[in-house]
Amino acid sequence: MFGNTVRRHVTISRFFNAVSNERLSSVLVGDPFCRLRTQRPVFQRPLTSTTEGIQGVTIRRGRIEDVPGVWQLSEEAMWNTHQDMIETLFKMCENGWTVAEKDGNVVGCCLTHDFNDDLTTGGHFIVSPKMRGYGVGGQILRNIAEEYGERNIHFSSISYMIDTYERYNGAPLSRGDTGGKYFGVFKDIPLPPDALRKYHLSDLRQVELSDLIEYDTSFHVVPRPEMLKIWLGQTTAETLVLLEKGKIAGYGSIRPAMNGFYLGPLYAENTIGTLVLFKALVDLIPRDSNVDFFLPHANEAGQLILKANENTVGLYDTFHKCARKSYIPVLKWNNVFALLFNECGLC
């Protein structure tokens, strides 16, 4: 039914050609998308400490040349990413990376993204295992706090880190919804027999991008057109759009990770539509491939899929959505099956 739009074998070939290519792929030619905010000043601040190990560490603004170093940090932390994904995040959040460097190596990082004059998201906070306990992470957080002042910052936190973030914030955090990072092989998608009759699946390139951006914005209090153009434009990504009577009823994207694939975002108007879209995306990749994604716990389809695959899917950890000042809820949080990326998107 979906052969004309999904192009399974072509997609798999493109995915694995991209994964095996050691060169950084170019997500976009040139830089046609204007920033939505003014550029923050580039800073470079050496740390002063008598503690051996932290000496010689510099906190500075990240740049595209840091992609391999940040990717290596991500691998050390056992985050299932791919170098293409890190490069894409650098392009999405230009001038938004804070990097700790020592002896020419990236030993810590954090990502921020300004959606507008009032709202920033943060994440991808990592310190090299060799540098933990020396205050590098604390200095990164202090720099960001100083830089943003009283600005509201949204982020996701593992449960045991909330107290630490509140200490650096100097006040209790505003807490919101919860979700989990799940990974594993999805063998059973519990679709009703007639689930496919009312839907049509289309490749992203066959849909007006403005319509997709409008649909995505219906989930949020702020639009994110620039972010979507770059994330969905990653050369190794594949995006499917769910249509009901010619109107967008959902969309989802999947791309290679180091161990299998990363799925996100995936939004749909109801449980059945979510199941149809999820199955179509999983059908794009080789059978029994590992899939990672961030699932909001309120999503009904997600709970059905987890129950159907409880022997092959595991939970990495539970995350809490937090904000420095006030948590702004996502309008259709229950319809979110997978976040775009837990580190820099509202969802």
UniProtKB/TrEMBL annotation:
A family per Pfam: Acetyltransf_18
A GO term for molecular function: acyltransferase activity, transferring groups other than amino-acyl groups
Domain N-acetyltransferase residue range list: 57-192
CDD domains named among the record's database cross-references: NAT_SF (cd04301)
InterPro entries per the UniProt record, alphabetical: Acyl/Acetyltrans_Enzymes, Acyl_CoA_acyltransferase, GNAT_dom, YitH/HolE_GNAT
Protein name in UniProt: Uncharacterized protein LOC106154412
Organism: Lingula anatina (Brachiopod)
UniProt gene name: LOC106154412
